[in-house]
UniProtKB/TrEMBL annotation:
GO terms for molecular function: G protein-coupled receptor activity; odorant binding; olfactory receptor activity. It comes from Carassius auratus (Goldfish). The lineage of its organism: Eukaryota, Metazoa, Chordata, Craniata, Vertebrata. Gene3D superfamilies: Rhodopsin 7-helix transmembrane proteins (1.20.1070.10). It comes from the Eukaryota. The gene is LOC113114576. Keywords: Cell membrane, Disulfide bond, G-protein coupled receptor, Glycoprotein, Membrane, Olfaction, Receptor, Sensory transduction, Transducer, Transmembrane, Transmembrane helix. Belongs to the G-protein coupled receptor 1 family. This is Olfactory receptor. InterPro entries: GPCR1_Superfamily_Member (IPR052921), GPCR_Rhodpsn (IPR000276), GPCR_Rhodpsn_7TM (IPR017452), Olfact_rcpt (IPR000725).
Length: 313
């Protein structure tokens, strides 16, 4: 048992990566390349939206939060993971582990709230086009973005704060990432309270996002069916299709880790693979989906690269 006063000096140990010596450098290079590619893709989307005034619209301002969040999400894992691969040192201080877990859950919750806000924006734009300018004003947009980040920060802070009063009985972690479920397994007691609060937050995030997305898409579908303008239908479906692909990817990518941690029958190897999937696939796929499927962003990116290529000659 470790007293709470010693948490700042407490050192935890992750599960071994089980890499043979000949695979250390290839694994490090692969991980570094993946991380740099994730940063490149997300920073490209951020730069494209910020530097083009034509994209300074509510839809793209809300979208801007997604690559920022994805870049932060990848950064909360990859530097520590790359260091572990290079040095084969699987230890991490409790404060660093706590911070990694806090950021992982903060980014995960933010993804749901951002996509929920984007679904609401598309609902107003397609179902209430004449009122869109009056509803999605700059002032209201700032309120939506500020409100979702503050709500997310408050909820995740509560979820992690209730870990602190309970004593820790072990320092070996069975996972590769400091999720809250992994931190809970280190506690001597208090797991019931933490489980209730954690499940309540999961229900809130999933329930809110699923209900809003279902409501908005049902009304958007009805509007598209009753709208006789084929061009409007196609544009609406293209815009919403990109959002729906990203949302479903997030749902599937979140569902597997939740199941693997809650049910003991899932093999330990799969549990560890699922535990890092949220740090890789959404940050990697989201900018590619929005970059290639959103016409305005795709055109701006291609124009930017074309101008740079011409100026280099």
């Amino acid at each position: 048992m470790y007293p709470n006063e010693s948490l700042f000096s407490l050192v935890l140990t992750f599960h071994s990566l089980e890499l043979p010596e000949t695979s250390i450098y290839p694994a490090f290079i692969f991980g570094l390349t993946t991380y740099l590619f994730i940063l490149l893709c997300n920073l490209t989307i951020i730069n494209t939206i910020c530097m083009n005034r034509n994209l300074h619209k509510p839809m793209y301002i809300l979208l801007l939060n997604l690559p920022i969040n994805d870049a932060m999400n990848a950064t909360s894992l990859f530097p520590q993971l790359l260091y572990s691969i290079w040095s084969q040192d699987r230890s991490i201080s409790y404060p660093a582990c706590f911070l990694q877990g806090f950021l992982a859950h903060l980014n995960g919750g933010a993804s749901y709230l951002i996509l929920t806000a984007m679904a609401y924006d598309r609902y107003i734009a397609i179902c209430c086009p004449l009122r869109y300018g009056a509803i999605m004003t700059t002032n209201n947009l700032v309120k939506i973005i500020t409100g979702m980040w503050l709500l997310n920060f408050f909820l995740i802070t509560v979820v992690f704060t209730i870990l602190l009063p309970y004593r820790i009985c072990q320092t070996h972690m069975t996972d590769l990432v400091c999720y809250k479920t992994a931190l809970m397994k280190l506690l001597c007691d208090g797991t019931e309270v933490n489980n209730i609060v954690g499940l309540s937050c999961i229900i809130f995030y999933h329930g809110l996002s699923l209900s809003v997305v279902a409501f908005t898409y049902i009304h958007i579908l009805i509007t598209c069916v009753t709208n006789k303008q084929s061009d409007a239908k196609i544009k609406a479906l293209q815009t919403c299709g990109t959002h729906l692909v990203v949302f479903l990817l997030l749902e599937l990518n979140t569902l597997f880790p939740l199941i693997s941690h809650r049910f003991e029958f899932v093999p330990a190897f799969l549990r560890r693979v699922f535990s890092i999937s949220n740090f890789i696939f959404p940050p990697l796929v989201n900018p590619l989906v929005y970059g290639f499927k959103t016409k305005e962003i795709r055109q701006k990116i291609f124009t930017c690269f074309k101008n740079k290529k011409i100026s280099s000659f």
